[in-house]
Amino acid sequence: MESLPAKTMPANAEAIAQAADLLRDGRLVAFPTETIYGLGADARNGKAVARIFAAKGRPRFNPLIVHVRDLAEAETHAVFSDAARRLAEAFWPGALTLVLPRRPGTPLSELVSAGLDTVALRVPAHPVALALLRKADLPIAAPSANPSGRISPTTAAHVAAGLGQNIDLILDGGATPLGLESTVIGFDGDRPMLLRPGAIARDAIESVAGPLAEAGTAIRSPGQLESHYAPNATLRLNAREKESGELLLGFGPSLASNLNLSPTGDLTEAASNLFAMLHELDRQGPRIAVAAIPETGLGEAINDRLRRAAAPRTNHA
Ligand code: TXA
Ligand code: MG
């Protein structure tokens, strides 16, 4: 493993208190959530939020997810329909992000919404994220803590390697349990629609909300750029075997894989391993082949990330 720079601290009470002070000062703190590591700033402070875009090298202002302590706090920032409240009650705290109309008078910076009249909200379940939200006592805007367009971070070491120079503190809470970003749901009136598949599978959402509307071709979730989550290596999908010069990322009882997302074919395990294994193979060589992943359950989100990682690169990395 890479050695960590000094600004990484184990996420104990003292480090969380320091992180809370930094956030109140408008500085940037990376912290673990149950999905991936986030790069956090005070969501009410436009200058602090702007630092997030600068640190990630985002080419333009994609809207950010605002993390809050609970549903009651979320309702002070956005207008919840009955359908939205039902989803929040079912899945918060957890890996669900809801995109909702901004409540007039919310102190959230306009920049977190990138000029839209909506805001993305999530109550994370990770104890470190919740402790930080309580201690700092402010809403935290946090995209994934990786350089724009690159693989999302599931460990503090990934964050340090990608963004270490640009962050004031990294709270190390170990590897993130889910390993895949939250599921993002928007609304067409009262009808929920899937803006980004993620760590909560479509079936689970539909069991609470009914059938999801398709988001359509208009990019309702502006972060959903075609090329994203990209390693330096090229990626070949649905590989049946390794070609010469390739490293193989397997799935299921396989093949001569270099790493295996889940030897037993468990999609939850595969989701939690996806980004960490892509990071690892990316360090080992320039060509990665990936075995086919079924499109069911969490496979929808895993395949979404793999297709983006394999897409022709746009120059926003
Ligand atoms: O699990 C996660 O969601 C992680 C952790 C840190 O919470 N965060 C994360 O953030 O993945 P980010 O910025 O990498 O992705 C946020 C996604 C993007 O696709 C963005 O376009 C979408 O949410 N989004 C945010 N605000 C939106 C809005 N107002 N309308 C539509 N889409 C929005
Ligand atoms: Mg991201």
Task: Break the fold down into its secondary structure elements and pairings.
Layout: E1 8-10, H1 13-24, E2 29-32, E3 37-42, H2 46-56, E4 65-67, H3 71-77, H4 82-91, E5 96-101, E6 118-122, H5 127-136, E7 140-141, H6 156-163, E8 169-172, E9 183-188, E10 191-196, H7 202-209, E11 234-236, E12 247-250, E13 259-260, H8 267-284, E14 287-290, H9 299-310
Parallel strand pairs: 1-8, 2-8, 4-6, 5-9, 11-14, 12-13, 12-14
Antiparallel strand pairs: 2-3, 3-7, 4-7, 5-6, 9-10
Helix pairs in contact: 1-5
The structure holds threonylcarbamoyladenylate and magnesium ion.
Structure description:
The chain has 317 residues and is of the alpha/beta class. It has 9 helices and 14 strands. The chain has helices at 13-24, 46-56, 71-77, 82-91, 127-136, 156-163, 202-209, 267-284, 299-310, and strands spanning 8-10, 29-32, 37-42, 65-67, 96-101, 118-122, 140-141, 169-172, 183-188, 191-196, 234-236, 247-250, 259-260, 287-290. The strands form 2 sheets. A 10-stranded mixed beta sheet has the order 1-8-2-3-7-4-6-5-9-10, sandwiched between helices. Strands 11-14-12-13 form a 4-stranded parallel beta sheet, with helices on one face. Strand 9 and strand 10 form a beta hairpin. Helix 1 packs across helix 5 (127-136). The protein is globular and about 60 Å long. The two termini are 24 Å apart. The mean pLDDT is 90. Bound molecules: threonylcarbamoyladenylate and magnesium ion (MG). Residues 33, 35-36, 38, 62-65, 97, 99, 113, 116, 118-120, 122, 142-144, 181-182, 184, 186, 195-196, 220-224 line the site of threonylcarbamoyladenylate.
